[in-house]
Structures are given as C-alpha cells and as structure tokens.
Specification:
- The chain contains two helices and two strands, in the order E-E-H-H.
- It has 86 residues and is mainly α.
- It has one domain.
- It has a two-stranded antiparallel sheet.
- The chain starts with a strand and ends in a 7-residue tail after the last helix.
C-alpha cells in the first residue's frame, strides 16, 4: 500500500511503502529503542540489576570465607590444642 504525504515546506509528494502491520510495529520498536527517556530508564535498570547481583555475590563470598575461616580454626584447634597460637 502506498501512502502519499504532502509536506508544507516543499510541494513534493513523498511516497512511503507500507507492507502492513509488521512495518508499523518495527517503527514503534525503533521509536521505543531510540527514545532517550526510555534509554535512561533501561540503563538505570541494567545498572541496578548488575549492582544488586554483585552485592549478592560479595555477600555470599564473605559468608563462605567466614565459614571456611572458622572451620580451619576449629581444625587447627583440634590438631594442636596446646599450641602457642591460642
């Protein structure tokens, strides 16, 4: 389907070829992706998601390290009960 548009600046008629709903959907997707406010919120969402996952990773690492440190301390205390460390 060809749609003619007459612009106010020039007397030329521009013709655009629309194949149907899919091209309109594609243009809406491009508008959505190229919109600066949308890009800002998507960037903020990505940063928040990454920082949250990184904080969970650090928390788990600290917990695991504390547990391992305590386990090794218990093993050393059992192996060397009268050692100078204690």
């Amino acid at each position: 389907m060809l749609i003619g548009q007459i612009t106010a600046i020039s007397p030329k008629i521009s013709l655009q070829h629309h194949t149907g709903i899919q091209s309109d959907g594609e243009s809406l997707q491009k508008d959505f992706i190229n919109h600066t406010l949308t890009n800002f919120f998507l960037d903020a969402l990505v940063v928040l998601t990454l920082s949250f996952s990184f904080s969970l990773f650090v928390n788990r690492n600290n917990t695991v390290l504390k547990r391992l440190k305590y386990n090794y301390w218990c093993l050393l205390n059992m192996l060397y009960p009268q050692h100078a460390f204690w």
